RNA sequence: GGCCCCGUAGCUCAACUGGAUAGAGCGCCAGUCUUCUAAACUGGAUGUUGCAGGUUCAAGUCCUGCCGGGGUCACCA
C-alpha cells in the first residue's frame, strides 16, 4: 500500500528560514536532548556509567500549568544510580538550561523535571506542519511487513453492522501503520471451504427453483434472505432448467461456486460503499487439495506438536452427549493455550482449525514480520489457539496481535433499533452507510476503543452540532477553509512565517506538536481510536481560539486592512487543517471544506 | 465450572510501554453573536477508578482473590 494519505497540504515553497532543521517531532527531539545530557553526566562521572535509559520519557504534562513537557528521568534513574531523584534532576536541569530551546526547567513533585520551551519553537512547529510533507509520519515501523487481516466475513450474505465495525477498524489500523512506517498488506480471508457455503449453495438452489415457479420453503437452516432471489434468477439465466429436479451431487459444486462468487461480489460492493479496499482476498478453499494444510500440520508435527489423543471433557457442566474420542491434536498448550486443540476429526477430516493454521502458516511463509487479525468479540475463544499456532509455526519470531471488535448496538433517537433475525432481515452495512454516509459511519465506529461496546445512534450520527464529534471535527476544518477562501479573495499571502502571540495560539501549536507522538502511540498500541480522540481535542483548541476572536478582534486570523498581520496569523489555522486532514485521512474520512 | 473482555462523575466515555491534584462530552446553572459560519465559545458542581490485599519512589494501569456485566467453551465454521 502506498502512502496515500492526502494531507490536503497546499503546494507551497519551502520557507527560507535560516539553517535550522525542521521540527518533526518535538517530543522526540527534546527527549534526545535529555538523553544526551544524561549520557554526558555518565561520561563525567556524575552518574554511574551503563545506565539503561529506555524508561526515560518526555511527555506532555497532565496539567498545562506544569510547563510544556515533563521528564521522569530523575525518578527512573534514582534507584539504579543509587542517587536521590532531586540531585539528578537539579544537575540535569542546569545542563538542559544551556540549550537555547529550553526556557525553564523546574524540579517538582517527587522528582519530575518540568520543562518550559522557548516560545520561538512553537512557530517552528507550525512551520514544519505546513512545509514538511512528512510531518506526523514516523519511521517507527522501519518498513517491517505487517499483514492486517480483517472483515473475513463468511461469503453467505451481505455484510451487517458488526462487520462494518471490523471493516472500519481494520482499514484505519492499516492506514495508521502505513503512516507510521510499516509496509502494510490488507487481506480478507474468504471462508469458502466449510459447511456454511454448502448451505449457501442449497439456499441459492431453492431460489433457483423459485425462479422456475416452484414453491419453496427455507428449512434446515437455509438462508431465507431476499438477497438470494436475484442470485437464483441469475443462476436460472445461466443454466436454464438443467438443475431442476436433479440430485444435489449434480449441481452442488457449480451452484456453490456460483453462490460464493455472487456473495463476494456483494461483499466487495459493500466494502466499496465504505471506501474499504483490500490488497488481497485469500480463499480457504485454495488450501484444500493443494497440500497446504498437510504442509502446515507437518511443520507442527516436525516440532513434536502433533499427537493422537483424547481430550478431557470440558470442566463444569458436562455436555449431555459428550463422549471420549481419539483425535489428532495440536499441542497448543506448549505455546500458551489452555488445552490442546483438535485439527482432525475422528473420521480423519480436518476440523475448521486446520485450515486456519494453514492460512497463518502461509502468512508466515510469505515473510511477514508481524501479523494482525481483526475478529468479532465472539471469537475471543480462538485468540489463544491462533497465537499458539503462529508462535509454533514461526518459532516465536512473528508476533500475532488479535484485535477483538465488540458489539455495535443500534439506536434511533435513543430507542434501541429492533431487527428481526427470524425473518432473515438484519441491519446491513448498506443500511447504515446509505443512511449516514461512509464518513460518518467510519468516524463514529472509531470513537470507541475496539474492545468496548459501541452505541450507534442514527439520529445523533448525522446531527450537526458540537454533540456530534464527526461534525465538530469537520466543522473546525470547514472554518479554516472559510478563512482561506476569504484570504484568497483579499489577496493575502498565506505562505508567510507564522506569528504566534496569544496563549490560545500557543495552546493550538502545542496540540499540533503532539501529533507525531500521538501517531506513534496509536500505532504501537494498534489503537486507531486515539486518532479520533486527538482530532476532537485539536478541534476543541481550535474552536476556542476562533471564539477568542469575539473578545479580542486582534486574534482573528483575518485582520481588517492589514494583510501583513493576516499573513502571520493565517499559518496556524492552515496547520490545523493540515493535521486534521491527515488524521481524517488515516481514519478514511473525507475532510469537509464547507458544511452544508 | 474453565478461559477472555469489561467495571472510572447522574449518563456516555478518555487517561500515553506505571507518573504529579484521575480528564472530556452530555445533562444542570450562569454568561458570550453590528463576527473570519454562535452549527461555536467561556465560567461553575460532580469521584473510596466494583471490593480486599500485594508489588513499586509512584497503581485506574501490574499481580492475587472475591463481586457484578458480557462473550465463549468437546468432530459447528
Quick take:
With 596 residues, this protein is α/β, with parallel strands linked by helices.
Structure write-up:
The chain is built from 17 helices and 15 strands. The protein has 596 residues and is α/β, with parallel strands linked by helices. Among the domains are: 106 residues, Gyrase A, domain 2 (2-Layer Sandwich); 119 residues, Isoleucyl-tRNA Synthetase, Domain 1. The strands form four sheets. The chain has a five-stranded parallel beta sheet, with helices on both faces. It has a four-stranded antiparallel beta sheet with strand order 1-2-4-3. Helix 6 crosses helix 7, helix 10 packs across helix 11 and helix 14 packs across helix 16. The structure holds one RNA strand of 77 nucleotides.
Topology of helices and strands:
Layout: H1 26-43, E1 58-59, E2 69-71, H2 73-81, H3 85-97, E3 102-108, E4 112-117, H4 120-131, E5 145-149, H5 161-179, E6 183-190, H6 195-211, H7 229-239, H8 248-273, E7 280-283, H9 292-302, E8 306-310, E9 326-330, E10 341-344, H10 353-365, E11 370-376, H11 383-393, E12 400-405, E13 408-412, E14 415-416, H12 429-445, E15 454-457, H13 458-461, H14 469-489, H15 503-525, H16 529-551, H17 563-587
Parallel strand pairs: 5-6, 5-11, 6-7, 11-12, 13-15
Antiparallel strand pairs: 1-2, 2-4, 3-4, 8-9, 9-10, 13-14
Helix pairs in contact: 2-3, 4-15, 4-17, 5-12, 5-15, 6-7, 6-8, 9-10, 10-11, 14-16, 14-17, 15-16, 15-17, 16-17
The structure holds one RNA strand of 77 nucleotides.
Amino acid at each position: 500500500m502506498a502512502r496515500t494519505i492526502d494531507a490536503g497540504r497546499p503546494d507551497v515553497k519551502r520557507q527560507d528560514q535560516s539553517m535550522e532543521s525542521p521540527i518533526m517531532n518535538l517530543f522526540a527531539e527534546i527527549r534526545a536532548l535529555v538523553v544526551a545530557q544524561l549520557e554526558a553526566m555518565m561520561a563525567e562521572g556524575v552518574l554511574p556509567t551503563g545506565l539503561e535509559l529506555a524508561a526515560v520519557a518526555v511527555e506532555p504534562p497532565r496539567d498545562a500549568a506544569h510547563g510544556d513537557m515533563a521528564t521522569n528521568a530523575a525518578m527512573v534513574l534514582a534507584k539504579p544510580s543509587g542517587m536521590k531523584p532531586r540531585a539528578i534532576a537539579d544537575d540535569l536541569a542546569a545542563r538542559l538550561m544551556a540549550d537555547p530551546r529550553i526556557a525553564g526547567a523546574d524540579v517538582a513533585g517527587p522528582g519530575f523535571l518540568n520543562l518550559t520551551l522557548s516560545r520561538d519553537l512553537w512557530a517552528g512547529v507550525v512551520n514544519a506542519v505546513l512545509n514538511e510533507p512528512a510531518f506526523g509520519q514516523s519511521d517507527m515501523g522501519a518498513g517491517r511487513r505487517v499483514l492486517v487481516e480483517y472483515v473475513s466475513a463468511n461469503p453467505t450474505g451481505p455484510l451487517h453492522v458488526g462487520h462494518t465495525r471490523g471493516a472500519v477498524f481494520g482499514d484505519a489500523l492499516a492506514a495508521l501503520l502505513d503512516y507510521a512506517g510499516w509496509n502494510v498488506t490488507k487481506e480478507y480471508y474468504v471462508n469458502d471451504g466449510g459447511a456454511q457455503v454448502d448451505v449457501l449453495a442449497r439456499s441459492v438452489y431453492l431460489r433457483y427453483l423459485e425462479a422456475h415457479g416452484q414453491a419453496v420453503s427455507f428449512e434446515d437452516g437455509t438462508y431465507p434472505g431476499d438477497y438470494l432471489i436475484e442470485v437464483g434468477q441469475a443462476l436460472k439465466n445461466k443454466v436454464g432448467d438443467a438443475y431442476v429436479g436433479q440430485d444435489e451431487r449434480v449441481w452442488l459444486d457449480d451452484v456453490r461456486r456460483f453462490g460464493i462468487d455472487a456473495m463476494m461480489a456483494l461483499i466487495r460492493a459493500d466494502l466499496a460503499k465504505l471506501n474499504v479496499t483490500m490488497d488481497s482476498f485469500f480463499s480457504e478453499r485454495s488450501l484444500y487439495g493443494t497440500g497446504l494444510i498437510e504442509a502446515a500440520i507437518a511443520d507442527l508435527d516436525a516440532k513434536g506438536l502433533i499427537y493422537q489423543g483424547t481430550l478431557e471433557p470440558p470442566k463444569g457442566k458436562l455436555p449431555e452427549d459428550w463422549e471420549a474420542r481419539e483425535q489428532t491434536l495440536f499441542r497448543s498448550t506448549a505455546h500458551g493455550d489452555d488445552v490442546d486443540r483438535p485439527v482432525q476429526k475422528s473420521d480423519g477430516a480436518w476440523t475448521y482449525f486446520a485450515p486456519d493454521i494453514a492460512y497463518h502458516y502461509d502468512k508466515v511463509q510469505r515473510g511477514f514480520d508481524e501479523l494482525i487479525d481483526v475478529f468479532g468479540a465472539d471469537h475471543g475463544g480462538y485468540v489463544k489457539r491462533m497465537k499458539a499456532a503462529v508462535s509454533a509455526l514461526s518459532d516465536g519470531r512473528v508476533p500475532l496481535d488479535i484485535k477483538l471488535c465488540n458489539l455495535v448496538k443500534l439506536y434511533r433517537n435513543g430507542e434501541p433499533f429492533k431487527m428481526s433475525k427470524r425473518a432473515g432481515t438484519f441491519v446491513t452495512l448498506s443500511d447504515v452507510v446509505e443512511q449516514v454516509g461512509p464518513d460518518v459511519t467510519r468516524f463514529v465506529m472509531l470513537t470507541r476503543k475496539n474492545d468496548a461496546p459501541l452505541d450507534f445512534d442514527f439520529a445523533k450520527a448525522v446531527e450537526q452540532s458540537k454533540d456530534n464529534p464527526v461534525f465538530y471535527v469537520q466543522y473546525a476544518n470547514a472554518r479554516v477553509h472559510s478563512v482561506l477562501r476569504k484570504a484568497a479573495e483579499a489577496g493575502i499571502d498565506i505562505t508567510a512565517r507564522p506569528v504566534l502571540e496569544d496563549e490560545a495560539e500557543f495552546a493550538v501549536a502545542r496540540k499540533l506538536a503532539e501529533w507525531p507522538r500521538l501517531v506513534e502511540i496509536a500505532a504501537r498500541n494498534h489503537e486507531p481510536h486515539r486518532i479520533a480522540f486527538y482530532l476532537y481535542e485539536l478541534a476543541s483548541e481550535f474552536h476556542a481560539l476562533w471564539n477568542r476572536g469575539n473578545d479580542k478582534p486582534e486574534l482573528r486570523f483575518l485582520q481588517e486592512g492589514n494583510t501583513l498581520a493576516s499573513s502571520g496569523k493565517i499559518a496556524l489555522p492552515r496547520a490545523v487543517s493540515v493535521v486534521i486532514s491527515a488524521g481524517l485521512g488515516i481514519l478514511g474520512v473525507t475532510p469537509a471544506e464547507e458544511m452544508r
